[in-house]
Amino acid sequence: MKPIRIALTKGRLERDTVGLFQKIGYDCTPLLEKGRKLILAIPDGNMEIVLAKAADVITYVEHGVCDVGIVGKDTILENGHSFYEVLDLGFGRCKFAVAGPKGKPFYTGYRQKRIATKYPKIARGFFEGKGMDVEIIKIEGSVELAPLLGLSDAIVDIVETGATLRENGLEMIEDICPVSARMIVNIPSMKLKKEQIETLTHKIETVKGAE
Ligand SMILES: Nc1ncnc2c1ncn2[C@@H]1O[C@H](COP(=O)(O)OP(=O)(O)OP(=O)(O)O)[C@@H](O)[C@H]1O
Ligand SMILES: O=P(O)(O)OC[C@H]1O[C@H](OP(=O)(O)OP(=O)(O)O)[C@H](O)[C@@H]1O
Q1: 85 CB burial (10 A radius; 0-12, 13-18, 19+)
Q2: CATH of 93-176, one of 3.30.43.10, 3.40.190.10, 3.40.50.2000, 1.20.1050.90
Q3: ATP phosphoribosyltransferase catalytic domain: from which residue to which, for each copy (predicted)?
Q4: For 12-33, what is each residue's pLDDT tens digit?
Q5: Which of 27, 90, 98, 144 has the most CB atoms in a 10 Å sphere around its CB?
Q6: Ligand 2 near 142 CB (within 6 A)
């Protein structure tokens, strides 16, 4: 039987995913000793792990070159449309929030507000839901810089501990939604590799249930 191919978001979600696979009982040595390799075989799980940037995990799963993806809900909300979201893995917990300079009122005045974010779709949707016409400015990282430099009135970004906001004189204005890592599945793979995918989800649920 061909292995199932799993696209895994490299970076923050990688360590918890390896921990999850180890709890299931898979030998993750290839992942722990990966060097610069991007495709790693986990033979006892009959799996192949593809290490990719978050948005690319969705692209590979949607195009069917990977059967399964492990990716944050943030990336799904911003980039995803056609796949099954089958499990909340419970790690990579953080939230989307609006934040701005400490002590500076945000929801006042008539001037159109500028929002800097790495997630323009989510930010636009959030303010549209409030009937607020805002200007969105796309930033690639360290979004907290934008209000500090005077580029924006506020940001829409991920907040986990709040340390980045605090250490840069910013504060939360409003929560948008919680975020955690999810398992997604390519639509045809769900039928074609049903048994293998169900076995994996069952094992994950068993391990998670025992936590
Ligand atoms: N501070 C955080 N706390 C917890 N989870 C986070 C945090 N920041 C991001 N995440 C989650 O981890 C995923 C991967 O984040 P990570 O920081 O590793 O990469 P990234 O920010 O998407 O890209 P880059 O590689 O450019 O930093 C995010 O998509 C999100 O779901
Ligand atoms: O609330 P905290 O615990 O401080 O975490 C939040 C920070 O973590 C993420 O940034 P990341 O480290 O991924 O860097 P980036 O801004 O370049 O994406 C996020 O964009 C915030 O900046």
Answers
A1: middle
A2: 3.40.190.10
A3: 53-205
A4: 999 999 999 999 999 999 999 9
A5: 98
A6: yes
